[in-house]
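User: Run a structure prediction on this.
Assistant: Running it now.
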Amino acid sequence: MESTVAIISLGGKQHLVSQGATVVVNKLDSKEGEVLNLPDMLSNRTVQAKVVSHQLGKKVNGLKFKAKTRYFKRYGHRQSQTSVEVVSIGAASQKATETAKPTVKKTTPAKKVTSVKAKKVTDGAS
């Protein structure tokens, strides 16, 4: 029996999604309507997600204040976000299988260190 949930990585964060779910993530460099093929972090499946829209998040207000110096500054920030809808959670794919395999780092043998002996310098007038 296949699971209907998957864990995907978008914008440096991992999200637990199911088919038909809409997820709001940090802004992606994809156009609206574009379909993304994402690997599932748990198994060798491919998750297809469609970019629904780009928008700004809630405004975060902040202020700087220093007592007795008449210093008072206000600022605000709105994070750019992207809404992504999960279209399907598919079967195993070759690309997802390749990314799920652990990589083995090749190591080179250490170089042998040879010691250099200092020669004793003698005067010819002894």
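Helices lie at 94-100.
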